[in-house]
Specification:
Among the domains are: 234 residues, no CATH class; 161 residues, no CATH class. It is built from 15 helices and 20 strands.
Length: 598
């Protein structure tokens, strides 16, 4: 399992013609995409089938990413190389070897995994008794045996052991034979085990398909040509990233944002915590330094694994900003993109916690970290960024029916800030999330829940030449007694405006249980919910980009007619006067804007 036998000299990599390199890279990408679609179609739970909270990818024997499924979540596909490196290290420490027919399960957040509920199943690929690659899938599972139902909303775990079952490079198939005791442990210790185990088996089937497709590619081109083509593809991706970095002005760019943390805590070390990112550009290389970020919270799970969450948040943000596919076309996603980027994170901070600090609720802090890197890059590449994003929220709904648990995880959309030339996107998952919402029909046909309201949130977007995006409002009613826990961010801090754009609006969460509505913080440990109670979740609105007085009055009018903003907001924020006939009063607008310096 040594990386040495995979090393290919640079001159050998150049010996493969560019057409063959492109064809092989395309084939690898198609394999990863097929794995992803197979997993999505075979899965049981809506978090994978509908929300697409999964990943699929191919990794070489030394742990370098070759391709990932483009339609899946970056936070799932991106960490797969880290999973492989963690598995390789753990197996070596235990003196275990990998054989054809093995399938390895892994979710160790301190050995490459994103967090505990994102369980990977990795299938080794052999050629003539030599390990040449891995095909793997990851997916977020409904339950992982934590202290309360669900695998999101676990916001009160005191250490890694309280977060659920830990799988550290565990063989679930060995030389093709099912390791039955492991599967029995899973069934005996996980709620909704039929769904979870079914999803795990779907992951294995999809990974095995990827392994077979990779073997067929080896048979077609030969292992030497295939490996040289992979080296050339990674070198090409590295050149693209270096060229993009070199276009930035050299310098040091620092930004700070904050997470709510535990806003209702009396302990100041648990609330309103800073995230600091300093981006240093030197020629064609970049360093992202997180020094200044708050210290880890040792007994609360909002810490972010450095490998699996922090690195993916940083790489994804830089790639999206500097190599936007709308400008550069298709960009191969492999190990080469990460080579020019160095990450510095002080040990013991939120972005590099020390075991056994819990990490299961790292999702929203990691998304905010990506937003912080975006804010820093805005100083170097102002026309390539968005203003502040509206962060996300996850509610784990749960209950008992006929002595069996039901669990549902709902990811509530955020929104993007305005961008140069474009308004922010409304009601979407942001940055490294990229999941989809669950169709109401699917929710109501499987669960004792009714979606009684679903609409865009009005009159809240950050004002700007290009306005911020809108969050959504969704209301869930319990048809039976049940419970819920909440994991979120963005209740205390509004998404930032950029270049004189206005800030957006924070999120809001309310519980209606017969009396006056109860406003809840962004993190709520598991609580019992009575039948008839309703959760009302209002998503945040993104920040504005550019001076609001420079927004085209016709676009302001369109927003008024669409119900996005009110007539009063048009006048107050944009200096646009809407007459009684429902049209822009051009003369009054010019006078008002001139009086305000527009």
């Amino acid at each position: 399992m040594s990386a040495a036998h995979n090393a290919v000299a640079p001159e050998d990599a150049r010996a493969v013609d560019p057409v063959t390199v492109a064809v092989i890279q395309g084939a690898l990408e198609n394999i990863a995409v097929e794995m992803g679609y197979r997993l999505m179609r075979m899965s049981y739970s809506s978090i994978i089938r509908e929300s697409e909270d999964f990943g699929a990818g191919l990794v070489d024997a030394s742990g370098r990413g070759l391709a990932e499924s483009a339609q899946s979540t970056p936070l799932q596909s991106g960490p797969i190389p880290g999973y492989v490196r963690g598995i390789t290290r753990l197996l070596a420490e235990r003196g275990e070897e990998v054989h054809p027919g093995d399938v390895i399960m892994h979710n160790d957040a301190y050995s490459g995994a994103s967090h505990g509920p994102d369980v990977a199943f990795m299938v080794p690929v052999f050629h003539r008794d030599r390990l040449v690659a891995w095909a793997g899938t990851t997916a977020h599972h409904l339950d992982i045996g934590a202290l309360t139902p669900g695998s999101c909303g676990i916001v009160d775990a005191i250490d890694a052991y309280a977060e659920g079952l830990q799988f550290r490079a565990i063989k679930v198939y060995e030389r093709g034979h099912r390791v039955r005791p492991v599967w029995q442990i899973l069934r005996d210790n996980i709620r909704v085990s039929d769904l979870v185990v079914g999803d795990m088996e779907a992951q294995i089937a999809a990974a095995r398909i990827g392994a077979r497709r990779f073997e067929a590619l080896v048979d077609r081109y030969g292992i030497e040509t295939l490996q040289r083509a992979c080296e050339a593809a990674m070198d090409h991706a590295e050149r693209l990233m270096r060229q993009a970095i070199a276009r930035l002005p050299d310098g040091e760019y620092t930004a700070t944002t904050h997470i709510d943390g535990y806003a209702d805590s009396e302990d100041p070390s648990r609330r309103e915590l800073p995230l600091v990112a300093t981006v240093r550009v030197r020629g064609d290389e970049m360093e992202v330094d997180l020094t200044g970020t708050a210290s880890q919270v040792p007994d609360a799970p909002i810490n972010m694994p450095l490998v699996g969450t922090v690195d993916i948040a940083i790489w994804l943000t830089i790639r999206s900003v500097l190599l936007d596919t709308a400008v550069h076309g298709h960009i191969p996603v492999n190990d080469g993109l990460t080579r020019p980027i160095r990450i510095v994170a002080p040990r013991g901070c939120l972005a590099n916690p020390i075991f056994p600090a819990p990490t299961i609720a790292r999702f929203c802090p990691g998304n905010q970290l990506a937003d912080t890197v975006m804010k820093a890059l805005a100083q170097a590449a102002p026309r390539q960024v968005s203003a502040g994003i509206g962060n996300l929220k996850v509610i784990a709904f749960s209950g008992l029916r006929d002595e069996k648990h039901w669990v549902h995880m709902e990811i509530f959309e955020g929104s993007y800030g305005g961008r140069h030339g474009r308004d922010g996107m409304d009601a979407v998952d942001t940055l490294y999330a990229n999941t989809r919402n669950n169709p109401i029909e699917d929710i109501e046909s499987h669960l004792p829940l009714r979606v009684s309201r679903y609409e865009l949130r009005e009159d809240v977007c950050g004002a700007g030449k290009w306005r911020g995006g809108l969050g959504s409002i969704r209301e869930f009613e319990y048809l039976d007694d049940g419970g819920a826990s909440v994991e979120g961010e963005g209740h205390c801090f509004a998404p930032w405006g950029f270049d004189a754009g206005g800030d957006g609006k924070p999120a809001r969460l309310r519980l209606r249980a017969g009396g006056a509505p109860l406003d809840l913080p962004s993190k709520v440990p598991h609580m019992r919910i009575a039948r008839g109670s309703r959760f009302e979740c209002a998503g945040p609105a993104g920040g504005g980009y550019g001076p609001p007085l420079e927004r085209d009055p016709a676009r302001v009018l369109d927003d008024v007619l669409d119900g996005i903003i009110s007539v009063a907001t048009a006048e107050r924020d944009y200096g646009v006067v809407i007459g009684t006939e429902g049209a822009v009063d051009a003369e009054a607008t010019r006078a008002l804007r001139a009086a305000r310096g527009g």
